[in-house]
Each structure stands twice: as C-alpha cells, then as structure tokens.
Amino acid sequence: MKARCLVLAFLACISVVPAFAQFGSVKGVCKDAQGKPIPGAVVEFHAVGSARVYKLKTDNSGGYSSLGVMMGRYNVVLVQDGQELFHLDNVTVGSDEKQLDIDIQHEQDQAGKQKGMTPDQAAASQKLSAAMKALNEKLLAANQALQANDYDAAIQRLTEATQIDDKHDLLWAKLGAVYLASAPKQTDAEEKARRYTEAANDYQKAIDLKEKAKDPNQKTAAPASTPELAGYYNNLAHAQAKSGQFDDAVKAYNQAIQLDPAGASQYYYNLGAILMNAGKTDEALAAFNSSIAADPTKPDAYYQKGASLVAKATVDKDGKIIAPPGTQEALNKYLELAPDGQFAPAAKGMIQYIGGTIETNIKMPKKK
Question: Residue 135: which of 112, 167, 107, 106 has the closest Cα?
Fold first, then answer.
C-alpha cells in the first residue's frame, strides 16, 4: 500500500511533451519590385501545424539568416512596416541549409504571364488572391495574439480564418493547438472541459481533411505528410484524454505510431502516461518499454518504467518492499542519462525506498 501511495506523487508530473527537436539553417536575400535589396524587413517562418514562428530581420543588403530553425514545414511571409509583401507556403527546412531568396520583381513577372486569362478566369483569380490575403492577415493577427499570450484573441482570429477557408487542414490544426494550450489556464472547470473538447473536434477536422487530400494526377488519395498527420493524431489523443475519451485517445496514439515510426518513442511515452493515469499499470509498462525500444536514449521513459514497476511492488511478511525485477535498473538508467533531470530526486527516493543501491557514478546531493 505504501508503494502505491508513493507512486501517486509522480503521476501529476507526467506530461505530454514534444518530440526531441532537430534544427536546420536558413538564409536568403530579399529584393523589391525594382530588383533592389529590402533592408529592415522581417522574414517570418510560421510552422505548419503549430504556433511556432521565427522572425528574421533583413540587413542592409536584404540578406537574412538563422542557424536555429527547427526542421519541418513552414509558411513564409515577408513583412515590412506591418505590410505583407510576399508569402510562400509549405517551405521545408531540413538538415541541409535552406536557401530561400525572395525576388518580388520575379514574382510579378511570373504573374504577368497570366494575362491570357479570360475575364471570368481573371475575376476568379482576383477573388482567390483577395481571399488568400485576408487569410494571411488573420493568421498574422493570430500569431501576434499568441506572442502576447492572448489566447482568446488568437482563437477569434483563427475561427474567422476557418470561415474564409474551411478546407485547409492547417487552420483547423492551428485552432486546435490554441484551444489545447489555453485549456489548462482556465479556472472554470466547464470552460476548461469545453476547450479540450473544441481542441479534439478541430484536430479531427484537420485529420479528416488531410486524409481526404488527393493528388489531382491520381485516382487514389495522395500520401499525406506522415509526420504532420501523426502530429495531428498525437495532439488529438491528448485532447481526447483530457476530455475523458480514453479509448479514443489510445486509438489515436496508436495511429500516430503507425504513421510516424521515427517519432514512435514520444508517442509510446505519451500513451504510457495516459494509461498510467487511468490505472492501467501493465499496459503503461508495455508502452514505456516500447518507448525505450524505439529510443534507448530517452531518459524519462526509463523513469516512468521504474515508477510503473514500483506501483506493482509488494510487501512481504517482514514489511520489506519487494519490487519487480528491473525496477532499480530502470531508475538508475534514468539517473545515468539525466542525473540532474526533473525526476532525479524522485528516482533516488524510489531506489532508496525499495532498498536498492544508487549507482556510484551518480552523484547524490550533499546533506545540509
């Protein structure tokens, strides 16, 4: 019984965190309609599927660069004096340096090649451009609101964006992300629950749109950007778990694992967290073992494995704690990988509680 009471303390610490970040570099030169450099402008990289944004200021030669942009897909916007000069969607930043030059003169020349359109085609094109401009303005306003931690304003702007274009999965995913981030900050229980439900609904809409996306040159559904879709499922699962939709959350995490094997360690870890919170210790232990198998260098998975095993400890007739095999090894492995990690004090306490030995290469804090 004491062992189970000890475990209750760490359950509140289990949290869903992003997968390990990897960074790439970007650079480029920005030129205006006359082919001259654009100094003092800002090139904004808006992450597809999240509220993350990088703002890179151009120098006197119109150049910009950064070595610390997280790898992924971005919508790029060139802004000067609060006005959007150019935008480009779905730019991929990978491990190789990304060269992205923005030449407005060239873009205008390309647009000039469309002069052969019929009046109806020209009108349709103009209408689409106006809609895209309005959409980008809403997204820019939403990002500015998020930077100011004004979640309600961001939700309002993104909702308006979905009213302009309700067929874009990114918009629904972004709206879901804001609802998900804002829910824990609500003091009213009903409002908190509502926001988690809204987040789950919005991520489901994003998933449905993503999975229905088709390549116009193919008769079957086009393969989606798997890591991005997996991310949608991961966040959907988190929202569902917070909304009490436990079985649906488990299914969504498993879907993310299938779609993105490279990120499986994090998805298994998140799955283990909700299973542990639901009291399903054996299933949680299996998930943490799978997380370790997918990434043996992930320290938190070892801690949660050890904690899951402590939850299964028994007490013999002499009052001695009998922990399952592998408990001490898992906790010591966590301390080896993260000696100063957030769970280090709890890991040491658990090892001592079960009568184990903390490995000598792990420094214990000095007693005061």
Answer: 167
Burial 202-220 (b: 16+ CB within 10 A, else e): bbbbbbebbeeeeeeeeee
Closest C-alpha among 227, 235, 243 to residue 203 = 235
Q: Which is it for strands 23-31 and 98-99: parallel, antiparallel or unpaired?
A: parallel
Domain 25-111 matches domain 130-233 at the CATH topology level:
no
Q: Locate tokens 């193919």: which residue?
A: 218
Fold of 25-111: Immunoglobulin-like (2.60.40)
Which DSSP state fits 243? T
* 334-358 pLDDT tens trace: 999 999 999 999 999 999 988 877 7
Residue pLDDT, tens place only, 194-207: 999 999 999 999 99
d(CA 321, CA 67): 51
Residues 6 or more apart whose CB falls under 8 angstroms from that of 208 comprise none
Q: For the chain, give me the number of helices (H) and strands (E)? A: 13, 10
pLDDT per position as a tens digit, 80-94: 988 888 888 889 998
Per-residue confidence band for 112, with pLDDT thresholds at 50, 70 and 90: low
Locate the domains of the chain by residue range: 25-111, 130-233
As its CATH architecture, domain 130-233 has: Alpha Horseshoe (1.25)
Q: By C-alpha distance, which of 233, 231, 230 is closest to 250?
A: 233
Measured CA to CA, the distance from residue 24 to residue 73 in angstroms comes to 11
pTM of the model: 0.64
